[in-house]
Amino acid sequence: MQGKNRSRRGTGHLYQKDDRWYGQWYVRGKRVRRSLGPVRQAGANDGLTQRQAQARMPEATAASDSAPAPVSERLTVEEVGKMRIRELVRRGRKQDTTLANYESEIRGHFVPHFAERPIAEIGEDDVVDFLDACLNDLAVKTVRNLYVHLNAIFEFAIRTRWCHANPCKLVDKPASAADDDTEIRFLDQAELDALLAVPAPRRHSKRTLERAARARALRDKERLQWKEIGDALDCSTATAM
Questions:
Q1: To pair with 53 at 20 to 30 A between CA atoms, which of 99, 133, 204, 233?
Q2: pTM for this one?
Q3: Domain range 77-197, CATH architecture
Q4: What is the pLDDT of residues 30-67, one digit of tens each?
Q5: How far is CA 132 from the centre of its chain?
């Protein structure tokens, strides 16, 4: 497989892992790996053939070549996660159960897996490996919550320029139909701004509500009277009116 999928020198290396095609090349002396898409299975119409995956390589390499230069601060997931918690506190978030859970997840799950590895060097494959390892020991709902937390840490790292990309966006959240109706999803900044921009619902005064109730009672009374007339004339209410 390694020799069969080898590309021309200088164009990168295409390889297959599990059911996906991956490309590998070097940018500024650093090895870069990117997922190019699913492998087309025998008899299927979806997925990529080897030739189609190879055709995606130039676009992927061009995108990575134009990416920003590597970040200077080599902060870990633990360090960035703790800084995000401190920022939430500065923004008025009280030290509640949620923040305590964040600290526990960082200490009990992120640190053992990612250790001292800089957050800027963590890629899609690393996130997949983390989720797979968690699914071996934890409930799907717990792993989904860890995914949401890790995604938020990467978004915070991008805003603070400690990394350039969020690999969680390239990885699907572990699926669980049983959790779909109860899942807690955190709004991103754009969604929060849109929510705050919605005008507050108009509150009617007590006098307005009383007038509306009287009008509704009068309408019901008239409807009842026309029904009685219709019954007396042996016709429908609409005909009597």
A1: 133
A2: 0.48
A3: Orthogonal Bundle (1.10)
A4: 777 888 889 998 888 888 888 898 888 888 777 665 55
A5: 18
